[in-house]
Structures are given as C-alpha cells and as structure tokens.
Amino acid sequence: MVAEFFSLLSTWQPLDTWIVVTAALASMACSLPGAFLLLRRQSMMGDALSHTMLLGIVGGYLVAMQLRSSGWLPAADYLFWRQTLIFAGAIVIGVVSALLTQAVEKIGRVEPSAALGVVFTTLFALGLVTLRIQADHVDLDPDCVLYGMVETTALDTVGQSDVPVAA
Questions:
Q1: How many domains in the chain?
Q2: Helix 78-107 / helix 43-69 crossing angle, nearest 10 deg
Q3: What pTM, to 2 d.p., does this model score?
Q4: Which of 18, 49, 54, 127 is the one with CA 20 to 30 A from 1?
Q5: Whole domain around residue 109: which residue ranges?
Q6: Residue 94 and residue 116: Cα distance in Å, rounded?
Q7: What is the pLDDT of residues 76-87, one digit of tens each?
C-alpha cells in the first residue's frame, strides 16, 4: 500500500498540484460561512443556498446570451460579462433565498426548517425547470451545471505553467 502511494507520487504532474490548490481554496472559502451557519444551527442553509443558486446561474447565463444576441455585448468582452452575470445571478438568488426563508418563517409562523424546505425546493425546482427548458437551445445542461469536477477547472498559461483561471 505504501509502495503504491509512492509510485503514484512519482507520476505527479504540475496539473495535479493546481487541482489540489483549487480544491483547497474552494474548501477554505466555504469554511467561514459553514462555521457561521453551524454555530447558528442552520447548517441546512448552506445546502439550500448552494442548490437555489442554480436558478441564478441559469438566469445569469440566459441574460448574457440575450445581451449578446441583441448586440449589447461585443464578442471580445462576452466571456468576461457572461461570468460576471452568472456570478451576480447566483449571489442575488442566494440572498433572495435567505430572505425568503426568513419571510416565510415569520409570515407563515412555521418552523425555520419548514420555511427552508419550502424555499429550497421551490427555487431549486424553478432552476431545474428553467435549465431543462433552455437546455435544448443553448450549451447549458445538467451535466455541466450540476455535476462539477475540480479536474476540469479552466487553466491559463502563465509563463510556462498552467494556473487556474479566476472566474
């Protein structure tokens, strides 16, 4: 077992290093909000936020496609604005889902977990339905949105090394 481990390390490539660095940075970025939500006894909120953001991702992508087809976004700047709109859409829907959860809890006088369940399933279902409806028209499908793989992180060449591209 130890010999197998060292034989795998002998085939380590620079790309493998960047995969590990990308995974470590993503884990560190999630640790602070995760600890905050755990201390507030709202650990399901992290799961709900990550799933409801699908609606924002799909919405941002569709807005970028619409702006490009109407001529508002030049082809040279399209990738930058597409990534920016996707990020902004995810953030907006994440905040909306947190606020909706609190509103349903207060207005409906229900338990926080019940309010979270209603908002979580509703926004996630809207995201999936929107994704499925638009998947036939654009290069956006459940495989590229729902099933992420850290090994497929976009890389750019800097000097003679490949480094992850920040979105």
A1: 1
A2: 140
A3: 0.70
A4: 18
A5: 42-153
A6: 12
A7: 888 888 889 999
